[in-house]
Amino acid sequence: MGNLSLSEAECLLSEASISNPGPWVRHSYYVADAAARLAVHIPGLDPDHVRSLGLVHDIGRRFGITGMRHIIDGYAFLTQLGFAEAARIALTHSFPIKDIRFSIGVWDCSQEEFAFVETFLEQVTYRLEDQLLQLCDALALPEGFCLLEKRFIDVTLRYGVSEILPARWRATMQLQAEFETMLGASIYRFLPGVVETTFGFV
Description:
By secondary structure, this protein is mainly alpha-helical. It has 10 helices and 2 strands. The chain has one domain: Hypothetical protein af1432 (Orthogonal Bundle). The longest helix is centred in the C-terminal third of the chain and has 19 residues, at about 165-185.
């Protein structure tokens, strides 16, 4: 089917919100909006295209409340529909470090599925879209755009503290630095409401 269109992505997320409603749906909208807002200022990126990728990055959650299984479900679902790039993003968005040892969350999947993700990460080459969605995933709460550090704490409170967190944080902050070089400005300049969401005045 080729690239996932914006209207198709909106329809998929709307359907998923009925199957499994929850804060993840609003988070997905903000991830998509952040990606589009940044892409406007980055040559080689199409705002509508990355918005569509952001809308479905967590689409595996349509199948219920799960841990890391959502990336496998999302990859399989989008692959079956013929959206190869969106399927890749559904998996890579959780890995700012391209190594399964740096994942967070419960691996509620089979050994074969775990091995598939491990091999996929070893073989995949990240594109600018993968990196943008990894960054934007860390810039969005269900309530709106936020500082990376706010999202770091949000995720840690839900999944717990582990020794891999500093490396993940450094990798995400490196993405921030790289995109700010492309933008020629702070990422937060393009994301309205960061102060309000971060500090609780929504």
